[in-house]
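Hello Y.,

Per our agreement to keep a running log of every chain we model this quarter, I'm adding this entry. I've kept the format consistent with earlier entries: sequence first, then predicted structure.
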Amino acid sequence: MERIGILGGTFDPIHLGHLIPAAYACNHLSLDRVVLVPSASPVHRPLHSPAAAAHRLAMCRLAAAAVPRFDVSDAEVTRAEPSYTVVTLRDLAGRLGAETELILLVGEDNLHQLHTWRQLDEILGLATVAVLPRPVAKPADLVPLEAAIGEVAVAELVRHRVPGPLIPVSATEIRSRVRSGMPINGLVPASVAEYIAANRLYAETRGKGL
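Predicted structure for the entry above:
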């Protein structure tokens, strides 16, 4: 059975804070592949993204090309409706078949809102959730999640936390540095930094953005 990790996100832009924990997960969980799934219309981030979906997809492809066993799916970018994780998992499970085990990689900074995800019970039936380390100001309040899926399920979810370093990099910081004319070397893959510069992404504020 093939084990595939699924990492979704806005990826605006994709950076080492995404890639390094996912690479640790790939090794720790013995994954055959990690698939990056950039979102077109993020449900939990309703404002328009500063970079168009096509640019974010292109940056993910550049980043994945440099990391063994990494791949990219355009499933959400090409979908008309909002980017619900449950829809993406249904789509992937249907296309990949029963011989594939899906592992949904979720950043620790998203645990506090996991209970708000559409049809969470179905998500947990379609994939095993593994938590990626991310810098957080304080531990997530898991009481709402425990109320939604039960204490045993939450304990099992937390047990699947991937050990690895905390990478204090955020897309917000990167966009701010680009707008200020500051370098982003070492924060994103070199190919992504070159793409941002060549396409003048984030060079100026577009609306309110994220």
